[in-house]
Amino acid sequence: MKSINVMIVGVGGQGSLLASRLLGAVLVSEGYDVKVSEVHGMSQRGGSVVTYVRAGEKVASPIVEQGEADFVLAFEKLEGARFAPYLKKDGILIVNTQEIDPMPVITGKTGYPSDALDHLTGIEVEALDAKTLAEKAGSVKAVNVVLLSRLAKRLPFPKSVWTKALAETVAPRFLEMNLRAFDLGYGE
Fold this sequence. Notes:
By secondary structure, this protein is an alpha/beta fold. It has a single domain, classed as Pyruvate-ferredoxin oxidoreductase, PFOR, domain III (Pyruvate-ferredoxin Oxidoreductase, domain 3). It is about 35% helix and about 25% strand. The chain contains seven helices and six strands. The two termini are about 30 Å apart.
C-alpha cells in the first residue's frame, strides 16, 4: 500500500474542510489508515486554512512536512504558490485560478502578483478555473468538489467510491449539485 500525502489549502469559507472529510472517507473506504489535521489561521476573516491528509498502511502523524506532499490541492493561486514547497520533487499542484485578495492587497499595501505561479519549477502544475465549473454545476460553493474531482482522477480509486463518499457526506439537498460539480471537474 503506497502512502499518500495531500495538503488542501485555501481561504476560510471555501470548503477545504469538507474536501478533507471527503478525501478521508474515500481513503478509509479503500482500507487506508488515515490521519487528518486542520490548521485554521484567521479563517473567518479570509485567512489561510490548511488541511493535511496522510494515508498509508500505518500513519503515525497527520502533519505533512516540506518536501513530503504528493499533492497540494489549492483553492486559490497565492495559497498554491505559498504551499508549493511542501510538494515532493515530482509532486503535483492542482490549483484553482481564482484570485482572492489577501489583506495587504485589500488595504492597498501591495498588488496581487499576476505571476504567482510562474516561478514554480520541479513540480507539475494543473491550473483550472474551478469557480466557473462550480457555477455551471449550480453554486460557486462547489469549487471544493470540482478541485477534489481533479485529484480523484490522479488517485487509483474508482469514481464510484468518490460519488458514494459524496452521498454519505453532503447534505441531501446539495447532493445533485455536488455530483454535477464532481462530473464537471472530472471531465466526463
